[in-house]
Amino acid sequence: MASILVKQSISRMAKVSAATYFSTVTGLWSILQIFTYFEGSTFKKIVGPYWGALYGCPVLVALLIACLHTKRYYQLGKKEEELSGDENDLRLPALNNGVKYLDRFQIKANLSREGLTSVYVAWDEAATPHREVVLKLLKLDVRDKSANQFIRRELEICKKLKSYNLHGLIKIHEVHWLSNKQGAFIVQDYLGTSRSLHDILLAEGQLEVERALTIILQLCDGIAGLHKNKIVHCDIKPLNILINDAGEPIIIDFGTARYFGEIIGPDDMRVSFPYTDPALTANEPADEKSDVYSLAVTLTHMLNGLPDKIREEGNPTKVLGRSSEQKDIPNMGIQHLDSSLVICIASALRQEGYKPTLTIDMFKTEISQIITTMDFSSE
User: Fold this and answer.
1) Are the CB atoms for 108 and 124 separated by under 8 Å?
2) How far lies 339's CA from each of 64, 326, 344, in Å?
3) Residue of 147, 209, 231, 140 whose CA lies nearest to 180
4) Ranges of the chain with pLDDT below 70
């Protein structure tokens, strides 16, 4: 790794030297052309005998600037190398509170650290004005091409979402590869006192129908923005939904997002039971119906409370091979709800006997009609 960094530094030095030299020579040549119009000037009489020697100055200037620039580049590369760890180590080194990452991010808190990904709250000193951000660090695994494919796809999708800036999705400020190409980082909004929908359900048990439907309706807008850009989230669940101080839901985590039409490989499927659409594990191309399915399961948990297993164990994302495909969904316990709501959820889950809801716009229309017609006064 060190040899790679040295080679990169030497290459950078050569490029900076050449660029500085030519820009300086061009500047001096321009000045010379100006003074040719002042043949008898005092300045030319003084400088004239030494003018040829001045052309040697750009070499010294170029080398000085290049050395300073390369020293800075090498120092940052060494810090990246230390903080991204050994390329054969599957885990990222932990960053303690107070550590300054890349001479820019002051680490304030560790939000999560799992496998190839670490997420921190950090103070971004390069932003104008300075601000708190969520810093997500991702590391490539030289032994797992499947995991690397997920990371590269997440970076690619996050770059697109940064330019789209869609309402209802977490705002992404920057996406960068580290200079050693062994990892990358994503800078996102930090929502401060927001809580995940998962934590809210743990604390409150279940939500009132009107509140639950209002949140789902807002989530439809964010998901619709993804779908218009041919992206499927593929992991809609309470843990990936933050509720901000205004009570608005924000969708986070695009680590398993896919493009429309993409088929999941036999050994690279990440699933979150029971939220993942069984179609994703059955060799069907990713499309809108998968997010609709996950959103419908999320709605049932908002109305009924989280299942005991999820309350006790959380809902980690798991790797699923084609040999252990997700079975049919269990009884969602929705029959006690209003009949229109039962039909809406069952259709989104594509249960037998119901006309399937295949797009987020269809699902949003059905939820809007239920909100309009349902009497919430008895809640």
Assistant:
1) no
2) 77, 28, 9
3) 140
4) 1-92, 142-146, 265-269, 315-332, 378-379
In whole angstroms, what is the distance from residue 78 CA to residue 89 CA?
17
Are 152 and 145 in contact by the 8 Å Cβ rule? The answer is no
For the chain, the 3-state helix, strand and coil shares in percent, each to the nearest 5, are 45, 15, 35
Structure tokens at 12: 């950078």
The Cα 265–Cα 271 span in angstroms is 13
Cβ neighbours for 95, distance < 8 A, ≥ 6 positions apart: 83, 101, 107, 110, 118, 120
| pLDDT the model gives residue 328 | 44
Residue type (1 letter), 161: L
Question: Residue 93: what residue type?
Answer: P
Question: How far is 251 from 238, CA to CA, in rounded Å?
Answer: 9
DSSP result, 180-203: TSSEEEEEEE--TT-EEHHHHHHH
Largest CA distance in the chain: 101
What gap in Å lies between CA 27 and CA 263, rounded to an integer? 56
Closest CA to 21 of 75, 72, 80, 61: 61
The CA distance from 44 to 100, in Å, is: 52
The C-alpha atoms of residue 107 and residue 123 are separated, in whole angstroms, by 7
How far is the C-alpha of 266 from the C-alpha of 130, rounded, in Å?
44
In this prediction, residue 29 carries a pLDDT of: 59
Helix or strand run (H / E) with residue 77:
helix 57-84
Residue 301 has a pLDDT of 95
* Angle, in degrees to the nearest 10, between helices 2-35 and 57-84: 150
- The pLDDT, as a whole number, for residue 27 is 62
Q: Which residues contact 293 (CB under 8 A, 6 or more apart)?
A: 277, 279, 348, 349, 350
Provide the whole-model pTM: 0.77
Integer Cα distance of 50 and 118 in angstroms? 59
Considering only CA atoms, which of 236, 234, 225, 363 is closest in space to residue 287? 234
The pLDDT value given to residue 254: 94
